[in-house]
Amino acid sequence: MFDVRYASSNKDARSYDTARLREEYHISGLFKKDEIRLVYSHFDRIIAGSVCPAERELKLEAGKEIGAEYFLERRELGVINIGEKGIVSLDGKDYEMEPRDGLYVGKGTKDIVFKSIDKNKPAKFYINSAPAHKTYPTVKINISKANPVTLGSKEELNERTIYQYIHPNVCDSCQLSMGMTMLKEGSVWNTMPCHTHDRRMEVYLYFDMTDDALVFHMMGEPHETRHIIMRNEEAVISPPWSIHSGVGTQKYTFIWGMVGENQAFDDMDHIDNKDLI
Question: Using CA atoms, how far apart are residues 165 and 179, in angstroms rounded to an integer?
């Protein structure tokens, strides 16, 4: 059930070739019908992945990797639906999930079941999960309840709106932050000028892309930059020591999830473009 990725050193990553970069950080094979696909990263022990029910319901179970009786015994969970209408059932209570609806699920919820309304048009649930020390209430967050932040400009090709879903401005959580960034027509860059934040790691899911579209996801230390080519509905792990930025051949949308020491969205170590190598 879990694909385990161990934490890697910034010093080691300098020598990685393309295949090794993808082995360590790239996540593919998401949103296959009637499958759960989860990656367990030892960077802050985040779990990222997909649940795509079609013909049958899918239940989120604990595995040996997390050493718990049930998935959220000592964890919290964020969900955003990027597919068609579905349902998330939490201990028997159903939450209808329209496209772009989000959900925060607090520690202690035992039974987590995912369903689609129409098997021919399945929901696509993208999930992030982090260790949790306290139980906060479950909250459904549709895009109108998310906190929008508009950034960028036409001149810099990075006009975008950041929708903060799981964020102190919207709901309580232990350490998980999660949101969705939508680029405007004609914009292709995200998070540029770039930054690092050694206090937190991050995972990006890129989607809303055509079959022939690409995003060049920039990573690595500012003086040792690398890139990973991303296609539709693929995710990438960003270590705390790495920049995380991207440029696409077309506009796209991405979901970001952060786990670490704090939830201050603007806690960033900004990197001037002239210092990138």
Answer: 5
Beta bridge mates, 38: 2, 49
Domain ranges of the chain: 2-275
Tens digits of residue pLDDT in 224-275: 999 999 999 999 999 999 999 999 999 999 999 999 998 887 889 999 999 9
166 φ/ψ angles, rounded to the nearest 5 degrees: -95, 100
- Which CATH number does 2-275 carry? 2.60.120.10
CB atoms within 10 A of CB 6: 9
Q: The tokens of 184 are what? A: 């405007």
Is residue 222 within 8 Å of residue 197, measured between CB atoms?
Answer: no
- CA 2/CA 41 separation, integer angstroms: 10
What does pTM read for this prediction? 0.97
As a whole number of angstroms, the distance between CA 120 and CA 114 comes to 15
